[in-house]
């Protein structure tokens, strides 16, 4: 593995640890109710709706945090197996600058862009439909 020096790797480990602690701190408070049940008796409809919105946002945030924690865990396991910092698509070293911005990145910038623009199923479906339309003269 040539891409990352030991120093760079250490920096990224520290960065991921800090990120994980930050997420855990925020996710921990998101789990507990903001208002105690006994204080909720005199809410009018608007307030109830607000509360539901907050709840929904909280759920979305929690999912987001869990995803981030899973990404961090996956990155750590790649570190253990010596595959960290190597693009899973083209097997090239991912630039340190990119890893600093996204310590959990699995792909180099080029492959990530390709991956995001590909949208596998949707693209295939569109292609199939286009082919079907072309090959069936009506
Ligand atoms: Zn790549």
From TrEMBL:
<keyword id="KW-0863">Zinc-finger</keyword>
<dbReference type="Pfam" id="PF01258">
    <property type="entry name" value="zf-dskA_traR"/>
</dbReference>
<keyword id="KW-0862">Zinc</keyword>
<keyword id="KW-0479">Metal-binding</keyword>
<protein>
    <submittedName>
        <fullName>Conjugal transfer protein TraR</fullName>
    </submittedName>
</protein>
<feature type="zinc finger region" description="dksA C4-type">
    <location>
        <begin position="87"/>
        <end position="111"/>
    </location>
</feature>
<feature type="domain" description="Zinc finger DksA/TraR C4-type">
    <location>
        <begin position="82"/>
        <end position="117"/>
    </location>
</feature>
<dbReference type="GO" id="GO:0008270">
    <property type="term" value="F:zinc ion binding"/>
</dbReference>
<dbReference type="InterPro" id="IPR000962">
    <property type="entry name" value="Znf_DskA_TraR"/>
</dbReference>
């Amino acid at each position: 593995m040539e891409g990352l020096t030991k120093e760079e790797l250490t920096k990224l480990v520290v960065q991921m640890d800090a990120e994980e602690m930050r997420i855990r701190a925020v996710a921990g408070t998101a789990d507990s109710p903001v208002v105690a049940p006994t204080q909720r008796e005199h809410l009018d409809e608007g307030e109830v709706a607000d509360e539901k919105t907050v709840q929904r946002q909280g759920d979305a945030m929690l999912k987001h945090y869990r995803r981030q924690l899973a990404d961090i865990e996956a990155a750590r396991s790649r570190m253990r197996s010596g595959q960290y910092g190597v693009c899973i698509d083209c097997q090239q070293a991912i630039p340190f600058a990119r890893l600093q911005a996204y310590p959990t990145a699995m792909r180099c910038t080029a492959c990530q862009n390709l991956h995001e623009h590909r949208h596998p199923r949707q693209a295939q479906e569109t292609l199939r439909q286009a082919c079907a339309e072309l090959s069936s003269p009506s």
